[in-house]
TrEMBL record, chain A:
GO cellular component: membrane
Chief location: membrane
Annotated spans, Disordered: 550-573
Record lineage: Bacteria, Pseudomonadati, Planctomycetota, Planctomycetia, Pirellulales
Organism: Aporhodopirellula rubra
Compositional bias annotation for Basic and acidic residues: 550-562
Name of the protein this chain belongs to: Cytochrome c oxidase subunit 1
InterPro entries in the cross-refs: Cyt_c_oxase-like_su1_dom (IPR023616), Cyt_c_oxase-like_su1_sf (IPR036927), Cyt_C_Oxase_1 (IPR000883), Cyt_c_Oxase_su1_BS (IPR023615)
Domain Cytochrome oxidase subunit I profile residue range list: 29-534
Transmembrane segments: 40-64, 84-109, 129-146, 166-194, 206-234, 254-277, 289-310, 322-347, 359-381, 393-416, 437-458, 478-499
TrEMBL record, chain B:
Protein name (database record): Cytochrome c oxidase subunit 3
GO biological process, one term: aerobic electron transport chain
Single annotated GO MF: cytochrome-c oxidase activity
Keyword match Signal: no
TM regions (residue ranges): 43-66, 86-104, 116-135, 183-203, 347-375, 395-414
GO cellular component labels: membrane
Annotated region described as Disordered, given as residue ranges: 1-21, 250-272
InterPro entries: Cyt_c/ubiquinol_Oxase_su3, Cyt_c_oxidase-like_su3, Cyt_c_oxidase_su3-like_sf, Cyt_c_oxidase_su3_a-hlx
One Pfam family per UniProt: COX3
Species whose genome carries this gene: Aporhodopirellula rubra
Amino acid sequence: MSTAITSRDPGYPTDRENYLTNSSGILSWIFTLDHKRIGLMYLVGVMTAFAVGGLLALAIRLHLLDPEGWMFTGAEANNIYNQVFTLHGAIMVFLFIIPSIPAALGNFLVPVMLGAKDVAFPRLNLSSFYLWCFGAIFFVSALFSSGLDTGWTFYTPYSTTTDTSVILATLGAFILGFSSIFTGLNFIVTINTMRPPGMTWFKMPLFLWATYATSIIQVLATPVLGITLLLLIAERTMHVGIFDPEFNGDPVTYQHFFWFYSHPAVYIMILPAFGIISELISVHSHKHIFGYRFIAYSSIAIALLGFLVWGHHMFTSGMSSLTTIIFSALTFTVSVPSAIKVFNWLATMYKGSISLTTPMCYAISFIFLFTIGGLTGLFLGTLATDLHLHDTYFVVAHFHYVMVGGTLIAFLGGVFHWWPKMVGKMYNEFHGRIASLLVFLGFNGTFLPQFVLGSRGMPRRYATYDPEFAFLHQMSTYGALLLGCGLLYAFIVLMASLAKGRRAPANPWGGATLEWACTSPPPYYNFERPPVVGDPYDFHNIEWDSQEEKYISTEPERKLVPEEQPAEVPAHH
Amino acid sequence: MATIDSHSSESETHDEHGHDHDHPAWLAHHFDTPEQQFDSGKLGIWLFLTTEILFFSGMFCAYAMFRMLRPEVFEGCSQFLNTKLGAINTGVLLFSSLTMAWAVRCAQTEEYKKLVVMIASTLSCAMVFLGVKSIEYSHKWGMGLLPPGSYFYDEANPHPTAQQIVDQHGFSESTAYFLTHSLYYLCAPFALLLIGVFAWLVWAKVTDNKFQYACAKPLLVVCLSFFGGVGLGMVLESGGGEHTVAHVDGDHGAADAGHGHADHEHAEDAHAAETHAAAPALDVESDDVAMELLAESDLNTGAKAMLEAKQAQTAMASGQVVPPGVEADMGIATVEKDVQTKRQAGVFFGIYYCMTGVHAIHILAGIGVLVWLLIRAIRHDFNRQYFGPVDYVGLYWHLVDLIWIYLFPLLYLIR
Ligand code: HEM
Ligand SMILES: [Cu+2]
């Protein structure tokens, strides 16, 4: 064996190796244990959920086109509106955003980035996908039975008295919670026990750090949601008197329980997005990530601090003033690690050689939008201002800036970044970039006016409004239509690539993490033997080959064995 | 049992070569070494146990909060729980932890016969636990010691007939029948299981299927243990049951002093007139002091509000002007002492059923996985290198026991 360990271009996979084609037939997908196929099935699933949730969102916006309500008419209009915004929120949160990055992209990437053959528990992985499907079925059946009108937060006492299908929906969320727990558990174990030799914790790609931090939250917070929803179901069916004031329960307890999960849950949504952005910024700036350790540690810091701030959702629910002050102060501390990340990304881009690829366009949008979202969080975390802004459109705008402007944009960036790896096809860069621009513009058009609306006193979750708000609401609706077009455009770009995209090389962007060292798409076993691990952000030896139109590794020959003792190596082979 | 060794020999292959494609059957393809597989499983189960603890922690929090807000309710109501039965169940679970730990040891040392005995003993203990629990539950259901939505306990007539439940408490006939005959309903699934396993045993014997016979035999014992538990519970409950009620009568009749107030849920509350005036009253003043202490904490807005309401009430009673913003009529002050009513006692039982119910569900799940282990043990699946599943299930089982170790004093003992 030569001493060179250059990971040269692995070429293209044969049909027998390609994970997409190595076995065929519907059963080979339904019972697959391959993390890549499961990831892909998740991707299809969450995208479907996103489409449903998105259509509901458009319905909401269209209804708000007119102060008296435009979309739904008749005596039931307001009830329908309540159901539509509830289902929109519940579907987007539980079925789309929470599983989007960890379960779809994470499943595909975590083992490959680790150079492992699969996640630690492949069967558990498949079962969490099916749990997701079950949960989705419950949600859909809630939709078709008597709907749901509690808001995605299921606050008591309304949720114990409304005659809509609270039980079906909460059962759905309960099941989805377990799906999420199992995914998180799987990733923690995988990252702990299956790293290849040489990959120390601080040689892991930052996406893995982010996934690890996310998984910690999934494992520690989701069970509390589980028991909360279970108690809510018990409250509704047997009146156990824990949450329902009619039976001497305490509705504020419900809020504490709920937000003890749901605030950490917002970090389940955003942390993996941070991970994606760290990868994207570094790879497309062709520059070593700045402040690797800070980014890594800040993920963990966010995961842990995120458990201490849930009370900021309840400043107006009647907590004592001391409690609110403590929660407010803690809320501010969470923004520190988030800011650290933003600064590190900017420093990474500084003097990098930035390729403005589609994924990079999304990454830059992300930095911009997430910053706005995070900063407006501080207004909400401040007691005096939150008293005014709570339950207004300002909150709506805030969380859409972080969840859509943050997580969704990062998810899109990640999908565009790893699409060539997942399906082995390149998409049209020009159209990809146009779509990302439309998404950016449409998004700001939708949600920027909502900050103004909220600060002027427009309450959230109202089906009709004062005519003075009409202009801003209409602007928001037109923005939403543009956003919808942009997303559809992006989807078409991806689909078109399947039909007539160029075959993707192993390393289309010049990345240095391990997933770029195997073929696109990867073989079903990922790597024949554990790959050699280097610095995941060292791009010095990766160069653009303009003839072949792909990146190649020009790694100098490295010696396996130190020079001092050369005798033994050749003796073996 | 010992004659079955069809599966054991292949799994003995040791992977001395450390080669990728020479995995023994029990080593999953994506793991390189048995150690890696074992460590992954171990970390996985510990994480899972963490989620279980957090799952229960929600209920422990609810318990702590309501206990803090309404200490007298918890004191009054925990006396309805039969300490003897709880203690027996604690002992049974502790013993099952021992047999479970022993089972892990047997798997490591490849003592197959003993392994099967240990797993079967653990299973039997689990069944005894459920049997005793059925007695406890059915007894309380019959007395109407239920969550607030359906609570109907009446001290004058603690064991009403189905007809009385219908007439006096407005339940439907089928519900009333269920409540008074709940033990049969609880036993029915286990009786069916017993019959099923017995049929299986006979069938295995007739067809001379040694493996299935070896599986069915211990399972029959396991199913029988449930009824052993029921019997045990009956004996102890009949001795202790009346005593419990009497005990409550003596010590906590005071709780009934205001029986009439809060029970406005039923119109014909014939028993409200029942007087227990003779019973020693709870020390109302010392209770106020406690409330003041609680209200001193800025965190306890509930206690604060209660105190304010109370003070406002006294102020109004003596004709003073109440400052604006203070609600005299929160309804809390009046029902506070009224332990044995829907709204008060019901909450205790709501929490009691949630906690013990979810725990019982975990016992059932544990029974499921233990049966799976039992069958694998009879198949000789485990060996000194591969005993992970026994170990993991063992850890789970210890956690389920541990939770009970907390539930028992919190619900039954602390007064
Ligand atoms: C960066 C620091 C952040 C701070 C300081 C912050 C602060 C807050 C505060 C104080 C509220 C409550 C507003 C109210 O109801 O009056 C809130 C609401 C919300 N935040 Fe954030 N937030 C931050 C980041 C995030 C992130 C990253 C996400 C999600 C990815 C998120 C999602 C939400 C959601 C969904 C709500 C509204 C929940 C509801 O009432 O339906 N936030 N935020
Ligand atoms: Cu929050």
